[in-house]
## 1
Amino acid sequence: MLKLSYDLHIHSCLSPCGDEDMTPANIVAMSALKGLNVIAVTDHNSCRNCPAVMKWAKEYDIIAIPGMELCTMEEVHVLCLFEELSDALRFDEYVYAKLMRYPNDERAFGKQEIYDEEDQLLGVEPYLLINATNISFDELGMLMEKFNGVYIPAHMDKNSNSLISNLGFIPPNADFLAAELAKLTNLERISQGNPHLKRCNIITNSDAHTLENINEAVNFMECKSRDKKDILTALVTRGKSFGYP
């Protein structure tokens, strides 16, 4: 088994809340500097900077998982991760069609910049990406099966935009097998009354919006190989596969 350091929740300059320095090349270079093996850039409701991220990841010998931080109709934030870039981009198209069309005000929310594989500005997204989509949380199991991905409720210990804060409970038919906490010390508190979490791998990520906030190599997962399929399998396979500081 390989021990891989990871940070699977990073925002690029495509997210309006992301710093303008969070270009694909800069994110990958900083991840390499911090000793990370596996990263995922998960912009709000979009995967359109993933192609550039994956190109630069090859240059730095980092494994980049294409992903997105989806905002459901309940305004629950969910990490959606994919083995193949093609599946991520198909899901991107599906989500974009379900996104509320509200023009982005860059002065109020920030820029939404799309970069090409040379780390040059390709364009900007005109509609605000942090809006809720017309996709319910209950649909995600079926959608991830359709698009060959896995879904992970994000920052479940936060007081906003988390599954427990927004719904007040974990749905009895929930089928997710991994969950993210902002702070692992909150696991005991958040598990009370939520037995489903005992079935899940618990991960923690930076949710970085600036380069300096990308995690150091302090969180680890054990995988059969560096193959993205094995990494996603490890995420949703219950076992002692995760190590924390």
## 2
Amino acid sequence: MSLFQKILQNPMKIGLERSIKNYFLEKKNANHSKIGYMSLVQGTTLWKYATIKNEVMLLNSSVGDYTYISHVCNISFTEIWKFCSIGQNFKAWLWEHPTNFVSTHPMFFSPGKQCQVTFADKSYYQEREKVIIGNDVWIGTNVTILDGVTIWDGAIIWAGSIVTKDVEPYAIAVGVPARVIRYRFEPDEIAFLLQFRWWDKDVTWMQENYKSFHNMKEFTLRFKS
């Protein structure tokens, strides 16, 4: 990169370019999605009221209705469903390296030129697997999710965790590596919620019944029939 090119890549210029791009992307979507300052969104579908805060890198992904992603997150090849709450500094942007090759360096298996050059004429190893985050998932601050992991509906990932394997519905996982410490509700209540799928209800229904969401027992009694 020349000196002139480096000068052009100053924060003010990048911020202006991204702000203009995000403005037109919001207008194009016409579904009340919102993209914050200095965020880069490419190859990504934003659904209704999807909200991306500041300084987020979001590539080749999808963000469901009413899901928000907090500041300074790095996300790629990730499918995020409805009503998720994603905390700051969340990472789903990892690349796999082979452990059984002579070398783990991508010059020998990837055409991506991660260090500017490569020996590989094509990809010889699957470097990426999609991350899936279900409906109504809460992910705390400073969480990392490894490639190929699925976080199922209603789960909670506590702050600072590194998730290396799938997390079951309505489980609470914490630690490095993350492990399930308990479940949010009783088994029959979880089964009911997974069958009821409130996140697919009309928004008018949610508005009329939002107070029932404050108490699981009341919610079950009211809607199980």
